[in-house]
Design a protein that fits this description.
The complex is a heterodimer of chains A (436) and B (413).
Chain A lengths: L1 H11 L4 H28 L11 E5 L19 E2 H10 L4 E13 L8 E7 L3 H5 L4 E4 L4 H6 L3 E5 H8 L8 E4 L2 E9 L23 E2 L2 H6 L18 H6 L3 E8 L6 H17 L10 E4 H7 L5 H30 L2 H9 L4 H37 L1 H6 L4 H27 L3 H7 L1
Parallel strand pairs in A: 6-8
Antiparallel strand pairs in A: 1-10, 1-11, 2-10, 3-4, 3-7, 3-10, 5-8, 6-9, 7-8
Helix pairs in contact in A: 1-13, 2-11, 2-13, 2-15, 11-15, 12-16, 13-15
Chain B lengths: L2 H10 L2 H31 L11 E8 L6 H17 L3 E7 L10 E5 L9 E7 L4 H5 L3 E4 L8 E4 L9 E5 H7 L10 E4 L6 E9 L16 E4 L1 E4 L3 E8 L4 H15 L4 E7 H8 L1 H35 L1 H9 L4 H38 L6 H27 L3 H5 L4
Parallel strand pairs in B: 4-10, 6-11, 7-9
Antiparallel strand pairs in B: 1-12, 1-13, 2-12, 3-4, 3-8, 5-9, 7-10, 8-9
Helix pairs in contact in B: 1-10, 2-8, 2-10, 2-11, 8-11, 10-11
Classes of the chains: A alpha+beta (436), B alpha+beta (413).
Chain lengths: 436, 413
């Protein structure tokens, strides 16, 4: 019976073509608006490492001067100072630890046909690669000894490696960066987490990618400046060493714990560390020390901006309007068929069957609207991704969203059809037949 | 007017009218807020930067590939590069600088009116230049003077501390620091607070110069300039003002001149003020574009809803209309009936919509930190939807009025 009703529904699309077209179009536009904004929100708020996001932690100390502090104030930065980074790298708990700065400079290719160009990348420690499970195409990460000695070693991304060496394996070759020769130890394969959580501060969650990585110790040995956000509350004094010794915050730090349950222990360790530093005359604010896991961190940095939430809300308001509109149009469409219902009821159809038939017909409208809405959403998303690189990164339709589109459209249409369908069933056969 | 009979007819068959009213209410609530946000974003994006002729300004970030250059080398090289740029035909002015307004990245500092304050008065964008930014960017001096060439300090960032003690501030910053002062030249501002705070004397006040982030609110105009050449690496940034319409050519020739001078061992990145402005407000424009699209669609959907429902009512009431016409009602009476009916429904929707708009705005203000909705949007929105309602119902109402009594009453039981 369902198949028959379905066919009937398809055929009835051609009945009152204007009304039906209006209904399908309204539904499609509503679905397209909500699905395209929802897709962007969905991609933006994605968890880039769902299997270990509860084991990755960012520590933040409230390490500003006492003068402009009143109890309860939030820390004035989202990074840590060099001193704290070094101390935590050396003695902190957890399975892995890394601190990261931004590195940028000039790269002189060996190939004579390439002119020098500017590159930007990160300066982490060795643990970075294992912690974030970065896949390698060639070679591997640098060694712990390289970290220790601040050796000039470099890991290239696939894109930079292909630019410099084509498809050749460059491990063992040298790259001239800022006038120094760096030994290539590995090339990472395509690694494109969204949001780019590992170095959001200074790089942005949906912005450019790192092109290479060198050891933090090497970048510091060359006295390179941080390519990213640097926040100094006091006067650091001249020279690089003074900068390293200062309370300026400019490094992002990550802990990886063996289990999420070790969080309390890590918090205790941080509190103990801060107390120890206080004895040395640092961290005068005596404030609490914050710990964020990966998802909390993304939330704290407001990766999904208010504007995105606003868009999604408005789009859903719009979908609601479209549904109300559809209810009205369905009411109109069904009400002119009272005679048909009367005849069918008189011939023995139960109310239940009428209900099923009309609801199926509604579902057909929803299906067609959903299909069209999907096409419109795809169009809207490709339009959006033309706007900028950042948007191109987040305006991507995935299979989950595809399924959601259909469900949303059909569910919306069926929901909208409930009232008109119920009204259609209320027809009294006798009255209808009499008036014929 | 026959308001009473129309009302009682409406009340007997409520579903349709309620649906139309709900549509009007929803649309009005969303539309008023959406247009308000669009207008607000536009106003933010159109704030003047203080730089005249933005379309003539560009920047060159130049890094030379030199090993272990000395400080004097680097200073000499920068002076030479500036002379090369000045020599390019079509160049009006050149200034070395550290950052650009609206570029979304740069140096900021905290300034205070007195070192005894607990907190700095405000953060400010920190521009430095050994040349005249006032001349190059065409900033307008409201008071005082530009820096003198003798006041320029060459600073080796790797070993020197700041030593200069003169500063140019924006009017907004000066007013923020000294709200009660009549004039600002000669006043002393402090970088930071406490015993380490460095003092600097105000020699000039520019009308306006936006910060690198061009934040929303007063912070956008908190900027200072100091006459410093900061050197730490063989890198420099120059800002150039070209003659009107010459920018693209000048950029190309400037790049060529610098490249030739450095024997190609140089990386040059050219940027324009326009591009920075575009990037700064890209998100706002995107949002505004989306809101306008949604608003247009809202109107279309609502109008189509009204047309659809009105058409349905006309069909349902063919017989009544025929009877009324046969009993002497004129066409205009029928037309009026439908329009009055629609105005009543729309008014109910508009009333609910006004409440909805306020409620939605309250929600947006409290959760998304948006601004309050001015009453003008409510009045305008209400008028818009009443007009839209009449326009949408006019077609079906006209069709109803054209029903001839004879055909309509034929076959009446």
């Amino acid at each position: 019976m369902f198949a028959y009703y379905f066919k009937l529904g398809l055929r009835n699309l051609r009945r009152n073509p204007v009304l039906t077209a209006l209904m399908v179009l309204t539904l499609a536009v509503g679905v397209a608006a909500s699905v395209s904004t929802l897709t962007i929100l969905h991609v933006m708020s994605g968890d880039p490492m769902p299997h270990k996001s509860d084991r990755l932690f960012v520590p933040i100390f409230n390490n500003g001067p006492l003068e402009d502090y009143s109890p309860g104030d939030e820390p004035n930065d989202d990074q840590v100072s060099y001193r704290d980074a070094i101390n935590m790298l050396a003695a902190g708990p957890g399975e892995r630890r890394t601190a990261m700065m931004g590195v940028g400079g000039s790269l002189q290719p060996e190939r004579k046909d390439l002119t020098p160009f500017a590159v930007t990348g990160g300066g982490p420690t060795r643990d970075f690669f294992a912690m974030f499970e970065i896949p390698f195409r060639y070679g591997q990460a640098w060694s712990a000894a390289d970290d220790k000695s601040g050796a000039d070693v470099i890991v290239l991304t696939r894109a930079l490696s292909e630019k410099l060496y084509g498809n050749d394996n460059p491990v063992g070759r040298r790259v001239r960066l800022e006038g120094f020769d760096f030994l290539v130890t590995g090339v990472i394969d395509t690694w494109n987490p969204i949001p780019r959580f590992h170095r959001i501060v200074g790089m942005g969650p949906f912005d450019r990618e790192d092109e290479f990585f060198v050891p933090l110790t090497s970048a510091v040995r060359h006295e390179w400046n941080n390519y990213g956000s640097t926040n100094c509350t006091g006067n650091a004094g001249p020279g690089y060493q003074a900068f390293l010794d200062s309370e300026c915050t400019w490094l992002q730090f990550w802990f990886e714990l063996r289990a999420a349950s070790e969080r309390a222990a890590l918090q205790d360790w941080l509190d103990g560390y801060a107390a120890e530093q206080r004895k040395l005359g640092r961290m005068p604010r005596k404030a609490h020390n914050d710990l964020y896991n990966l998802t909390e961190w993304l939330e704290h940095l407001k990766v999904v901006g208010n504007d995105n939430k606003l868009s999604a809300w408005l789009a859903f308001g719009f979908l609601l309007l479209c549904l109300v509109n559809t209810i009205g149009l369905l009411l109109a469409k069904f009400s002119v068929r009272a005679a048909e219902v009367g005849v069918r009821r008189a011939l023995g159809a139960s109310r239940r069957e009428i209900f099923q038939q009309f609801l199926t017909e509604t579902a057909v409208v929803g299906l067609v609207g959903g299909l069209l809405g999907l096409l419109l959403a795809l169009g809207a998303l490709s339009l959006i991704s033309l706007q900028s690189k950042q948007l191109a990164l987040v305006a991507r339709m995935d299979w989950t969203m595809l399924a959601v589109t259909f469900l949303l459209a059909v569910a919306a249409a069926v929901l909208a059809g409930l009232l008109p369908t119920w009204r259609a069933c209320q027809v009294t056969p006798a009255l209808q037949l009499k008036s014929q | 007017m026959e308001i009473r009979p129309i009302l009682s007819a409406l009340l007997r068959n409520k579903t349709g009218p309620i649906l139309v009213a709900v549509q009007v209410a929803l649309s009005l609530a969303i539309l008023a807020n959406a247009l308000h946000i669009v207008a607000e974003r536009r106003a933010v994006a159109q704030r003047p930067s203080g730089v005249v002729a933005e379309e003539e300004i560009f920047y060159l970030q130049v890094s030379e590939l030199k090993n272990q250059p000395t400080f004097n080398d680097m200073v000499a090289s920068q002076a030479r590069q500036r002379d090369l740029l000045k020599a390019v035909p079509g160049v009006v002015a050149v200034a070395q600088t550290n950052q650009a307004p609206l570029s979304r990245s740069g140096n900021n500092t905290g300034v205070s009116a007195s070192p005894n304050q607990l907190k700095v008065t405000t953060g400010a964008a920190f521009y430095v230049s050994p040349d005249s930014l006032i001349r190059t960017w065409g900033l307008k001096l409201a008071e005082g003077r530009d820096f003198l060439p003798t006041e320029v300090v060459d600073l080796d960032m790797n070993k020197d501390a700041y030593v200069t003690n003169v500063v140019i501030v924006t009017q907004a910053l000066a007013h923020k620091l000294w709200p009660d002062a009549g004039g600002y030249v000669g006043k002393t501002l402090y970088f930071g607070t406490g015993k380490d705070a460095e003092a600097a004397r105000v020699v000039g006040v520019v009308e306006r110069l936006q910060s690198t982030s061009a934040e929303v609110g007063e912070r956008a105009e908190m900027s200072i300039i100091q006459p410093i050449r900061r050197v730490s690496k063989p890198r420099a940034m120059y800002t150039v003002r070209a003659e009107p319409g010459q920018r693209e050519r000048v950029i190309k020739e400037a790049e060529d001149a610098l490249r030739k001078d450095a024997g190609n061992r140089v990386i040059i990145r050219a940027l324009t003020f326009e591009k920075d402005r575009q990037d700064r407000y890209r998100a706002d424009r995107g949002l505004a574009w989306m809101l306008v699209t949604v608003s247009v669609l809202l109107m279309l959907v609502t109008a189509s809803g009204i047309v659809g429902m009105a058409s349905l009512w006309v069909t349902q009431r063919r017989k009544q209309i025929g009877v009324r016409r046969a009993l002497g009602a004129r066409r205009v009476d029928i037309l009026r009936y439908f329009i009055v009916e629609n105005v009543m429904i729309t008014s109910a929707g508009v009333a609910a919509g006004l409440l909805g708009a306020l409620a939605l705005n309250h929600l947006l203000v409290s959760t998304l930190e948006l601004a309050r909705l001015p009453a003008g949007y409510l009045v305008g929105g209400a008028a818009l939807f009443l007009a839209l309602g009449v326009a949408a119902v006019y077609g079906p109402a006209w069709r109803a009025a054209s029903i001839s009594p004879a055909t309509a009453t034929r076959g009446v039981v």
